[in-house]
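Collaborator request log, item 7. Partner lab (contact: R.S.) asked for a structural prediction of Pyridoxamine 5'-phosphate oxidase family protein to inform their binding assays.
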Amino acid sequence: MTNWTEFAAAAPRVSETFVRRHKATGNLCMLATLRADGSPRISPVEPRFFEGELWIVGMPNTTKFDDLARDPRFCLHTATVDTEVKEGDAKLWGVVEDVSDDAVRARFTQDIFDETGMDCRDEKFDHFFRADLTSASSVQVADEHMDVTIWKAGQAEKVVRKH
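Returned to partner:
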C-alpha cells in the first residue's frame, strides 16, 4: 500500500491537482463506499492530511464509516463545481485502515485545534481511518485538449491526451 507522502512523490501531477482542488472547495470531497448490500454510497467528507498520511475521519455514527469498517475499499473524488472542469479534478482509490493508536489520535485532534480552533481533543472517534492508495487519476483541460493522468501503485504516472 502507498501512504500520502509516497503517493505525492510517485504521482506529483495527480497529487498536486488533488491538493489544489481539495483546498479550493474548503476540503470537501465525495467519498464512495459500498453499502452492506453491495450497492454504492456517495457521501461528503473532509479528508485531512496529517503526518504524511491522508485521513478519512468525521462525525461519529455515520453510515459511510460503517461501510468502510465492513469493506475498506473507497474512492475519493474532489468536489467538481464546474461542468467544463477548467480547474481540473482528481480521484483516489484505495483501502482504509482503522487506526486505534490513542497517541496518533491525540496528535491529530491537537493539530485540528491548532489549525482551526475546533476543539475535539476529548472526542472519541468511532473510526479513525488512514488511507492507503492503490491508484489515482486526474483531469486537466487546456486549450483544445484534455490530459488524463493515471497512476497505479508501483508505476509511474502516465498522461493520456484527448483531443
